[in-house]
From TrEMBL:
InterPro entries: AB_hydrolase_fold (IPR029058), Peptidase_S9_cat (IPR001375), Peptidase_S9B_N (IPR002469), Serine_Prot_S9B/DPPIV (IPR050278). It is an enzyme of class 3 (hydrolase). The keyword Hydrolase applies. It comes from Streptosporangium brasiliense. This is Dipeptidyl-peptidase-4. Its EC number is 3.4.14.5. GO terms for molecular function: dipeptidyl-peptidase activity.
């Protein structure tokens, strides 16, 4: 290779550039609108259209042709991209009307509308930088947020109407608050009525939330950024809902629970989903748009917590409810009141509802995510039989299937119309050039999903290699998948002379509610026990290839917490650790995530999952890495642990990253972080 893997991975945003995404299928199934950059190293995303009958693509909108400075983003948009882990630039999101004839998008704060048939594009005049523009279902208006105010613009006469203005600097209309975007998978704060004459709009008041300050010590002349951060046990943003009519009237939609999970406004009515603060009660409410009053359609409870499943609620053509719930040991698809999937098939997501057909993702084997369809009381596998990770969309008889397997380099996107192939939507992603040497096994006493990777030139049994555990290991995130893209960084570490082990322990998805809920009130013990269990199970499987006297562990975010935890509590097993952006004290992390697993701080479950009490135990090399601009896991986590280690007289290394957020998007930083970690681990495990 002419370019090192760390540089290539950094330049290609972890090989995500050039991959088609953001699909919208026209109701007739004749066209597919999507997003993609022009190459695997081009960070500027364009808007495209695929003609299903002809199997050809055409470019709809190219930001470079509009001569727009991509870096000129309003702060709210930067925050939204951080929450969504968006790594590219350009047109990173868009909306269309129901007929998919008009699209709107924001570009560097400007509002653009394009006719998808003629490609005629307009930039509309706005009173400020635009956030989250959404075309009304009828295509007559576009809604957007600027300066915390919610606006609607008529697309014919381009007259702008302000439907709601913030009453104070702490109030916004039409934007998802921090917790919704970071933890509830809700990136939007308003929903159009089907007729386009009213909008259900969130009013978010951050005034009850504590003020934190994110400073950049490397640039002392810059003022610290003030942020409202809802730490565990403290106040959340106050969220209210209003129906704003285009005639200027406002109807409140009251609800009692702490969290607004999502909303849906379709031909069968307006519904909202709410969740209690302890996340043990979820309510589906039907709202009367005329009065704002709601009635309970369904109430689910769980003694541990309830999961938020993307894509629900929805309705079949006759109004039958499409829902998701856990029963009989499985996450299941619910049609009406009845589960229609077996408990052994773990529902991941409902991706589309087209008439009486429901397209959904689910796992039978934990490492695989298949695409299934429900219709007329039956479920059918619609993704290929080959094990992999698949997703898709459907409308008007057209099916778009995206997927990746262990044997393929990169993902593939196939288009079908009434079951017949209509071609591929090309991926321009760069080739990684690695020789993947990954074995998927079940390891340890709990049959944990585990991936074991060896260097490309390693001959089995020829040498015992130092071991690198490479987990995330936390709730609601999975690392061990039957997809090649999941192991690129791990394979590169293996090629530096390590046997790399990636293991999903208790708390991770894919194996059902009981497996996930084993971390209730203890985020430390089960995840750490399972990393040890997986390591020992892999050593039994490869006894002549793993040197258990030289075991390192690395991770980021929850994985960073787990890495630091490993050398503090199990130095007999782990001999060095790299902890990136670790959560070290769960009181410093946000309400929704932390309280879901540990409850409120006064309930007494936080100390056992904190790292501070173990600081004096450190006698292994530990490298702490943290971005000083991280507004998700703030740098205070690492700095406080470092202070505790210093007070205990325990040597350790700290690498602060000036101006770097939780995503570490900068190319030079992303590249050198890999090189520095390898250097540290080689020396520590020599």
């Amino acid at each position: 290779m002419s370019e090192s893997f760390p540089r290539l991975q950094a330049r290609t945003r972890r090989f995500t550039l050039g991959v088609p995404r953001g699909f919208t299928i026209a109701p007739g199934g004749d066209r597919v609108v999507f997003l993609r950059t022009k190459s695997g190293s081009d960070p500027v995303t364009c808007l495209w259209e695929f003609d299903v009958a002809g199997g050809k693509e055409r470019l709809i909108a190219d930001p470079r042709a509009l001569a727009v400075d991509e870096e000129d983003l309003p702060p709210e948009e930067r925050a939204r991209r951080e929450r969504s882990r968006e790594q590219a630039g350009g047109i990173v999101g868009y909306s269309t009307d129901t007929a998919v004839t008009t699209a709107a998008f924001a570009l560097s704060g400007g509002l653009y509308v394009v006719d998808l048939k003629t490609k005629h594009m307009r930039r509309l005049k706005t009173s400020g930088p635009v956030i989250d523009p959404r075309v009304s279902p009828t295509g007559e208006h576009v809604g957007y947020v600027t300066g915390g105010a919610f606006h609607v613009q008529d697309l014919e006469d381009e007259i702008d109407h302000v439907l709601a203005r913030p009453e104070s600097p702490e109030v916004t209309y039409g934007l998802a608050e921090f917790i919704a975007a970071e933890e509830l998978n809700r990136m939007r704060g308003y929903w159009w009525s089907p007729s386009g004459d009213a909008v259900l709009t969130e009013r978010a008041d951050e005034s009850p939330v504590a003020r934190w300050h994110i400073a950049d010590p490397a640039n002392p002349a810059r003022p610290a950024t003030e942020q409202r951060y809802p730490a565990a046990g403290t106040a959340n943003t106050r969220v209210e809902l209003y129906i704003l009519s285009l005639d200027g009237s406002r109807t409140p939609v009251p609800f009692e629970d702490e969290y607004l999970v999502t909303a849906s406004w379709d031909a069968h009515g307006l519904t909202i989903v709410t969740l209690s603060r302890d996340q043990r009660t979820m309510r589906l409410l039907k709202v009367d748009p005329a009065t704002g009053r709601s009635t309970t359609v369904r109430e689910d409870t769980d003694p541990a917590w309830l999961d938020v499943v993307p894509g629900v609620p929805g309705h079949l053509s006759d109004g039958t409810l499409v829902w998701a719930a856990s029963s009989d040991g499985g996450h299941r698809l619910i049609i009406g009141d009845e589960p229609v999937t077996p408990a052994t098939l773990q529902l991941r997501e409902v991706v589309d509802i087209d008439g009486d057909a429901v397209l959904f993702r689910a796992s039978g084997e934990p490492t695989e995510v298949a695409l299934w369809a429900y219709k007329d009381g039956r479920i059918t596998l619609v993704s290929p039989a080959e094990s992999g990770v698949y997703s898709g969309h459907t409308a008007g008889g057209t099916l778009v299937v995206t997927g990746q397997t262990l044997g393929d380099e990169g993902s593939a996107t196939r288009v079908f119309h009434h079951g017949k192939p209509r071609g591929h939507i090309a991926s321009y992603a760069e080739r990684h050039g690695l020789d993947l040497r990954v074995s998927l096994i079940r390891a340890g006493g709990r049959d944990l999903s585990t991936a074991v990777l060896f260097p490309a030139g390693h001959v089995p049994g020829s040498a015992r290699l130092p071991v690198l555990m490479d987990p995330y290991g936390g709730p609601h995130a999975q690392r061990v998948l039957a997809a090649s893209g999941a192991y690129l960084t791990s394979q590169w570490f293996a090629d530096q002379g390590f046997a790399v082990i990636v293991a999903d322990g208790r708390g991770t998805p894919g194996r059902g509610p009981e497996f996930e809920r084993a971390v209730l009130h203890d985020l430390a013990t089960p995840p750490l026990e399972d990393q040890v269990d997986a390591l020992q199970g892999a050593a039994e499987r490869f006894p002549d290839d793993l040197d258990l006297s030289r075991v390192g562990i690395r991770g980021w975010s929850f994985g960073g917490f787990l890495a630091a935890l490993a050398v503090l509590r199990r130095p007999d097993v782990f001999h060095a650790a790299v902890a990136g952006a670790p959560v070290t004290d769960w009181r410093l992390y946000d309400t929704c995530y932390t309280e879901r697993y540990l409850g409120l701080p006064e309930e007494g479950h936080y100390e056992s999952s904190s790292l501070f009490a173990d600081a004096e135990k450190l006698d292994r090399p530990l490298l702490l890495i943290h971005g000083l601009a991280d507004d998700n896991v703030v740098a205070a986590h690492t700095l406080r642990l470092s202070s505790a280690l210093l007070a205990a007289g325990r040597p350790h290394n700290v690498l602060p990253l000036s101006g770097v957020t939780h995503m570490t998007p900068q190319e030079v930083v992303a590249e050198n972080l890999l090189l520095l970690q390898v250097d540290f681990l080689r020396k520590a495990l020599a």
